[in-house]
Write a structure and sequence with these properties.
The complex is a heterodimer of chains A (569) and B (81). With 569 residues, chain A is α/β, with parallel strands linked by helices. Chain A has 23 helices and eleven strands. In chain A, helix 11 crosses helix 16, helix 14 packs across helix 23 and helix 21 packs antiparallel against helix 22. Chain A starts with a strand and ends with a helix. The chains are: A alpha/beta (569), B alpha+beta (81). Strand 11 of chain A pairs antiparallel with strand 5 of chain B.
């Protein structure tokens, strides 16, 4: 099968063009280096099915990062290259174009963001550019699909003009001459919008705006999440599902092994979705009615922040702080992702350049960044006792993130490279792209989490019958009761935390814990070990040795922090 | 003509990049982003406490770490105001 490779600088709309060509779902982010894992799709080209690869964004064919190496390797397997170029920044983008032309591969150039050239005051002579490059050049606007048809039609006309290999300096000279001949720029004053945009990277206004954005995002996430719970999911479960379960409970005779597994314990003759703990009661209620609403609202907001282009600015603002933790500002992006789910967050640490940074970032995320599922449960359970207790949990985790980061910075050898990132212009997010991304992430959560949650609840019920937990509880009682001040039944929850932290916290609900015990329980659960999915990714990303180190740090930190909290509160 | 490093430029000042005092790796990474000798550069902002410096080159904004910013030498424009 013929292979087409999409190559281009980061932030040129490559992924949107890919989506337009294949119709396959891909994540399109606005921050540099988002597509570290490449995407593959198929399209029909004149009756023939061809394969399309979306290579990670790269500025040159002299790789400086893992992602750029991937791009180079993919290029070597391609039959035709679609080089996506940002029309508003011809000079810099043409460097990659010239390198591609030197490779003797058939190339088509998609001159993307064509609509932006007008309001940037840029005029490009297309015919002259085609002649100078010797390959088809198609102006496109990926976000509106303008020019995509022409781009597809031009693929068979892709040619290799046979440009001789040049040195770096000669390439820049050649580019200078091309740009002089094809591009005219009329001077234009800054708009008020650009002034506002600049304010977000000024030290004082920037920090104020960042605080406002993050606080606003947090409030909106809670508002949407809570509204979904109280107006959609709770009524559904209470009014429609509970009567069905009660009927089923009657049919099963109200007790017995099967009843306990499917429905769980009835509380005062009623199904209690949090405490009953059967497959069909809590097993469905926890993922769908407690966690899913927050997953939806969190990923909606994150998608909007990504696609407006705000995140790289945040990286610049927090760079100084992140350096104190042995990271650079860019690490804020995986960290924010971690507030949704630690799994993609740890995978995203690949965008960091040094091994030390990846280790520190991954360890900090799995210890101190609670995922949306866990946070939903913290709000649901700890929140019942008052907002101040939720605040204590968050403040503790934040303090752990800072203090542990400082310790790791001194303890872990290696270097943290300096920040060097492009800050893409602000863009109005495309609703279609945002919703598509939201759907993919939500679907991912359901597929990953629901089977594990059901499995965990089934396992708990069986182990409970077999009295396995009693044995573990007695064995670990000194730590759990002595150090954390929790009843020894809480051990079950801590063990289950390895499978799903949201389920684990849900298991603390029937134990009638005090607010203080719930705070300690939540913090220990968040810190002491990653859930199984995170564990697997950690193993894959860090390797056995570093994963064990990371896990060791987690256990020690959880013991110290849990113990101290129990003493202080 | 006044010569300063990028970190010593004030926000809003612009000039032409005179030279980059770095190793081959740093020079080519910066060049790939459009920061290379001869290009016009404008400083947009810098963060407090030796934080990154944001600049504009060819209508694109780029954030450069403080250390690197100290190695980018700029020929300042004459002040016209």
């Amino acid at each position: 099968m013929k292979k087409i490779v999409l190559m281009g600088n980061p932030n040129v709309g490559k992924s949107v063009i890919f989506t337009r060509l294949t119709g396959i779902n891909v994540i399109v982010g606005n921050y540099p280096g988002k597509t570290v894992e490449y995407k593959r799709g198929h399209m029909n080209l004149g009756g023939e099915t061809v394969e399309i690869f979306d290579a990670p964004g790269t500025y040159t064919l002299e790789p400086t990062s893992e992602a750029e190496e991937v791009a180079l390797r993919m290029l070597d397997t391609g039959d035709v290259v679609i080089n996506v170029v940002n029309a508003t920044n011809l000079e810099r983008n043409l460097y990659l174009t010239l390198q591609l032309l030197e490779r003797k591969l058939p190339v088509v150039v998609a001159l993307n963001m064509w609509d932006d050239t007008k309001h940037c005051g840029i005029n490009i002579d297309l015919d002259k550019l085609r002649k100078l490059l010797g390959v088809p050049v198609i102006p496109t606007v990926a976000t509106t699909a303008q020019g995509i048809k022409e781009l597809v039609e031009s693929i068979p006309k892709a040619t290799s003009p046979g440009v001789p290999a040049r040195s770096r300096d000669d390439r820049w000279v050649a580019i200078g001459s091309i740009v002089d001949q094809v591009q005219q720029v009329t001077h234009r004053h800054h708009t008020w919008f650009e002034r506002l945009a600049d304010a977000t990277v000024q030290p004082i206004t920037g920090v104020l705006i960042a605080l406002a954005v993050l606080a606003g995002a947090f409030l909106v996430v809670r508002l949407i999440g809570e509204s979904l719970i109280s107006y959609v999911f709770e009524p559904l479960f209470n009014n429609l599902w509970a009567p069905v379960l009660l009927r089923l409970s009657d049919l099963l005779g109200g007790a017995g092994f099967l009843h306990n597994i499917l429905i769980g314990k009835l509380i005062e003759g009623e199904v209690d979705f949090v405490q009953s703990f059967g497959l069909l009661s809590s097993g469905l209620y926890v993922p769908f009615a407690m966690v899913l609403p927050y997953i939806i609202s969190f990923y909606l907001l994150l998608g909007l922040l990504e696609d407006t282009g705000y995140l790289p600015r945040l990286a610049v603002l927090v760079d100084t702080i992140m350096h104190r933790l042995g990271l650079h500002g860019y690490a804020i992006i995986p960290t924010l992702l971690g507030l949704g789910c630690n799994v993609p967050a740890i995978m995203a640490t690949r965008i960091l350049e040094s091994e030390r940074e990846r280790f520190v970032a991954a360890t900090l995320i799995s210890i101190a960044i609670p995922c949306a599922a866990l946070q939903a449960m913290i709000f649901g359970l700890v929140g019942e006792h008052g907002g101040q207790y939720v605040a204590i949990v968050y403040a503790t985790l934040f303090a752990v993130w800072i203090i542990l980061g400082i310790i790791l910075r001194h303890a872990v050898k290696g270097f943290t490279p300096e920040l060097l990132i492009e800050i893409p212009p602000y863009r109005l997010p495309l609703w279609r792209a945002v919703l598509q991304k939201l759907w993919m992430r939500t679907y991912g959560f359901l597929v990953e989490a629901v089977p594990i949650i059901l499995g965990a609840i089934l396992a708990i019920n069986i182990l409970y019958v077999l009295r396995v937990f009693d044995a573990i509880a007695n064995f670990t009682a000194p730590v759990v009761t002595g150090l954390f001040g929790l009843p020894k039944e809480a051990v079950t929850a801590l063990v289950i935390g390895f499978l799903r932290k949201d389920v684990a916290l849900g298991m603390l609900a029937p134990l009638a814990l005090s607010a203080k015990q719930l705070v300690v329980g939540s913090v220990v659960l968040a810190m002491f070990f990653p859930c199984i999915a995170t564990f697997v990714v950690l193993l894959r990303e860090l390797g056995v040795v570093n994963m064990l180190k990371s896990a060791g740090i987690m256990i020690v930190a959880a013991l110290i922090v849990g113990g101290s909290l129990s003493l202080v509160l | 003509m006044q010569i300063k490093t990028l970190k010593d430029l004030k926000s809003g000042e612009s000039g032409r990049i005179a030279q980059i005092d770095g190793g081959h790796g740093m020079v080519s990474r910066l060049a790939a982003l459009g920061i290379r000798p001869g290009r016009r550069i404008t400083k947009i902002s810098s963060m407090l406490m030796r934080g990154p410096v944001t600049v504009e080159v060819d209508r694109t904004q780029i954030a450069v770490g403080f250390g690197m910013a100290g190695k980018i030498i700029v020929d300042l424009d004459k002040v016209t105001e």
